[in-house]
Design the sequence.
């Protein structure tokens, strides 16, 4: 049941919604398409659902042309951000819809449908609400009805378009976990669209980062987080600090901090480095290159604390994460002066042109002397 | 009384009741009072007359049929206007309102001119045995004409606000286009179609100006009830005119209440929101 997407392009009058996108989706895999709005992720999902067609490219399923089948023959389950339930039908009738519209010879009997609907309602924990209308349900309940409705037709692929986008934070977290469990139970190939990178990191087996109709990076969540391949991925996935670097004799540096360049980026004069908030050391020993920074704010967020530090040397405010336990130990109170240095940077060289655009395909990772990772 | 968030409840309700009383209820009460001159027996006697019966049958039968036709055609026209982009769409959209704006007598004369045996259409239809002008068919035509905008204009905003995703959902669940229309789109439109039906019906029952020109007003054949009322008025027989008015009013009220009840029933899924 491998879905192979090859060189898909879809052009709308003013933008390219998809631009040469290729992707393989393995059976039973949980894939997240993540990107800002307008990145083409929803277009890609609609093409898989049969509600839109690419201008170029192909989609095959076990070698068979997937695009030749219309939406109704494709056997996919689709769940929308705004539920798209049938408001004039009860919950039970909504779930049964896909079975009832089948041609007579493929349609299960009334009793079979009832049994199947009962089973699905139990699965989505709505067994008692079968006779209600959608308008009488909460957002989280509606989305579970939509999911049960999509599962009723026993789809080969489950497609979810921002399924938790319209729900409040608490319900969203609960539903995410529940969806993940459901996926593990059913083993259904699932493609999931979201603009929320945290949701993608938490849920998916593999995430596909999209930007302007192109795929920026595909990988397991921790790989993408740790080794972002493009500046866009650095900025979009997780939080990061962007620091302009310049080449000196044989070091790369910014202000009073520098690292030996070694063999990296020999050809280039400037670069941009991305540092995760957890990759900044706050107590660099004297004698090692570091910035002097002033601690501005401490935001406690449960087990970790977010710090804002201001580095006068490069005139930039940086975000740092520390474990909340460490707050007392290091005298981390606003106003404190710290010696700060990055321990791990993902670096992209910049071209020499005035625009200073990143040079495609060039990237290296630099580690500080007291790096632990 | 509990404090309300919006001020002016007392004032607005008082105004609404007074206004409705003066503009709607007072004339109707006067009508009923005037009709009491002939009494119930008089009304029954009136109803027993074949000419009155025929006129009432034509008025209400024609109006029901016209409203029904308008609902079917109105749905198709509104669908085209809302769902498709084609050259001239805006002009067509503006044309819909013309029957609202046209003095009804003008409409009646225009229809008659077209369908009269020597008119543009009549010239071809009459030899085929289809006589429109001066027949019940003409009455129906005029009623369709004046009622049409009501259906389109009530349906249009509702059709525009239908979520397209709901239809997408039906399609991915395996429904054919026809199934999607019959099981998903139509049920959500029925309450609005009924509103349009009621408005078109009310308009057609009360229509006078355009109908009398094309109807020919042949007693027992193409004479509508409002015309009978006008004839009684011309004869200074105010009590009988009022009695006929009360009869029409009662029928209309019963019909509108029925439609409204039907509408509530078809909207039961939205009525009981949590």
Sequence:
């Amino acid at each position: 049941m491998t879905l192979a997407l090859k060189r898909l392009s879809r052009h709308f009058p003013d933008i390219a919604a998809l631009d040469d996108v290729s992707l393989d989706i393995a059976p039973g895999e949980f894939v997240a398409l993540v990107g800002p709005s307008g990145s083409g992720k929803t277009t890609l999902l609609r093409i898989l659902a049969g509600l839109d067609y690419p201008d170029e490219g192909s989609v095959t399923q076990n070698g068979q042309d997937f695009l030749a089948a219309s939406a109704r023959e494709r056997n996919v389950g689709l769940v929308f951000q705004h539920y798209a339930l049938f408001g004039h039908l009860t919950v039970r009738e909504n779930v049964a819809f896909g079975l009832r519209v089948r041609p007579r010879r493929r349609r299960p009997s009334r009793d079979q449908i009832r049994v199947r609907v009962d089973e699905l309602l139990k699965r989505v924990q709505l067994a008692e609400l079968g006779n209600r209308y959608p308008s009488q349900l909460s957002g989280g309940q509606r989305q579970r009805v939509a999911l049960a409705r999509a599962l009723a037709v026993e789809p080969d692929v489950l497609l979810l378009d921002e399924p938790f986008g319209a729900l409040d934070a608490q319900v969203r977290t609960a539903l995410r976990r529940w969806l993940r469990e459901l996926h593990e139970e059913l083993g259904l190939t699932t493609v999931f669209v979201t603009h929320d990178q945290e949701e993608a990191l938490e849920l998916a087996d593999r995430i596909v980062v999209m930007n302007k109709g192109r795929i920026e990076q595909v990988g397991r969540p921790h790989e993408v987080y740790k080794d972002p391949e493009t500046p866009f991925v650095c900025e979009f996935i997780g939080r990061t600090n962007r620091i302009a670097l310049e080449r000196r004799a044989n070091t790369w540096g910014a202000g009073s901090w520098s690292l030996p360049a070694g063999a990296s980026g020999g050809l280039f004069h400037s670069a941009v480095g991305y540092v995760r908030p957890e990759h900044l050391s706050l107590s660099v020993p004297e004698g090692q290159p570091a910035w002097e920074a002033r601690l501005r704010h401490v935001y406690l967020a449960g087990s970790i604390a977010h710090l804002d530090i201001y580095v006068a040397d490069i005139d930039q405010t940086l975000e740092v994460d520390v474990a909340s336990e460490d707050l007392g130990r290091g005298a981390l109170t606003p106003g404190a002066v710290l010696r700060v240095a990055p321990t791990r940077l993902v670096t992209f060289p910049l071209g020499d042109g005035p625009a200073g655009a990143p040079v495609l395909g060039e990237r290296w990772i630099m580690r500080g002397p007291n790096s632990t990772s | 009384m509990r404090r309300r968030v919006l001020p002016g409840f007392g004032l607005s309700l008082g105004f609404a009741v007074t206004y409705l009383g003066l503009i709607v209820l007072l004339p109707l009460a006067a009508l009923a009072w005037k009709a009491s001159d002939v009494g119930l027996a008089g009304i029954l006697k009136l109803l027993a007359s074949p000419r009155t019966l025929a006129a009432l049958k034509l008025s209400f039968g024609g109006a029901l049929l016209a409203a029904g036709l308008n609902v079917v055609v109105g749905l198709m026209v509104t669908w085209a206007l809302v769902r498709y982009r084609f050259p001239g769409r805006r002009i067509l959209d503006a044309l819909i309102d013309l029957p609202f704006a046209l003095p009804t007598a003008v409409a009646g004369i225009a229809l008659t001119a077209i369908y009269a045996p020597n008119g543009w259409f009549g010239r071809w239809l009459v030899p085929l045995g289809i006589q429109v002008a001066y027949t019940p068919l003409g009455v129906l035509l005029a009623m369709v004409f004046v009622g049409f905008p009501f259906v389109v204009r009530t349906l249009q905003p509702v059709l525009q606000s239908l979520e397209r995703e709901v239809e997408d959902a039906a399609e991915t669940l395996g429904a054919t286009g026809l199934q999607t229309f019959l099981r998903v789109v139509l049920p959500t439109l029925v309450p609005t179609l009924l509103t349009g039906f009621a408005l078109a019906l009310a308009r057609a029952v009360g229509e006078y100006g355009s109908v009398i020109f094309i109807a020919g007003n042949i007693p027992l054949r193409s004479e509508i009830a409002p015309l009978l009322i006008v004839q009684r008025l011309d004869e200074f027989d105010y009590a009988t005119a009022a009695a006929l008015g009360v009869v029409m009013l009662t029928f209309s009220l019963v019909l509108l209440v029925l439609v409204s009840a039907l509408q509530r029933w078809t909207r039961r899924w939205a009525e009981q929101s949590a």
In short: Residues 169-186 of chain A form the longest helix (18 residues). Residues 3-231 of chain A form a domain with the Rossmann fold fold (CATH 3.40.50.300). Chain A touches chain B through 32 residues (CB under 8 Å).
